[in-house]
Please model this.
Amino acid sequence: MAGPHHVVLVPGFFGFANLGDFTYFGHVRDLLSEVGPASGLDGEILAVLTEPSSSLPRRAALLAESIHRLLEQHGGVVSIVGHSTGALDARLMLSPGSILPTRVDVERCAQAVRAVVGVAAPHHGTPLAQHLTSLFGSQLLKLLSLATVYSLRTGRLPVGVALRLARLLRRRDSVPTGVVDQLFLQLLSDFAGKRRRAIEEFFSSVHSDQGLVPQLAPGAMELFNAATGDRPGVRYGQVITRGRSPGLRSLGRAGLSGYAQTTHALYVVLYRLARGRPKDPPAKLSPEDRKFLRRAYGSIPDHRANDGIVPTLSQVRNQLVAAVWADHHDVLGHFHQPRHVPPHFDWVASGTGFDREHFEAVWKAVARFLGESA
Model:
């Protein structure tokens, strides 16, 4: 192999690669820096500064530009890890003959890629996109994203905000904009200086382009899959996530504090909105997939199983690298383990039971898969 083997990390929907001193992939980056060299991942670990909710072609173009700069500076080869829709960006960039809105040589960038791992990726779409598009609109999307940033940055979301956000997500009619704006400003007021300016710039980009949201609906993803082919010579793998079905067990696992119970209520709403339907385009499960999923979960998940954002079966594609009980952000290291150094803060109390041991096992498996692809 000529040159170093780099890893490019691609954030998902509303992916805040870096806001002030908070990083989306901070825990992943630290662990891969530690275990990656033993697997042959001896190059840079780069997080793409993508545009949060832009269309897939625009996000794929930004990925290509990031890889172009990396190759210009260091040479070598590349593997990509895409969380959520970040995996779709990678698939589109690598698709043979893909035409993207960028001046860089996309084909040259694609030829340098050896492997892609999708983590909790909506390969067959997510019903949550349809709910957000048809019922709630851009203001509520902004509020949900800021609430995620806030909770992961500070360790806990204000209880009053979590309760009101859960109520708003339950609505089946129009969202009162004034209430959403009030909650948004309440959260934003706790940030200051460079961090606040970074957040304001982030949400300005969210407001200017929301082409991604309708593209993630199951029907739209069926068209995407028909038009987007895998690149020969590139290994594609997946990390599958599944949250606990809301009930007494998940409630107990979430914790008995008032804060845990409140954010668990928010998880319950998101879980219900993200449930697939029997008529959604199904994942094609191979005998190997079925064996892998049964070993991880005790049985094969049905269309209702999800991680609070993406249906579990929507994530199944290509070779399965890992399958874990985890919500959508747990797998990135955003679970409740505040005494670890550096601390792990949860986005919502989903009660999945995912912890540092699980986190290390998943990312060591990812490192091995990527290293074997060089």
Q: What stands out?
A: The chain has a mean pLDDT of 87. The two ends are 7 Å apart (CA to CA).
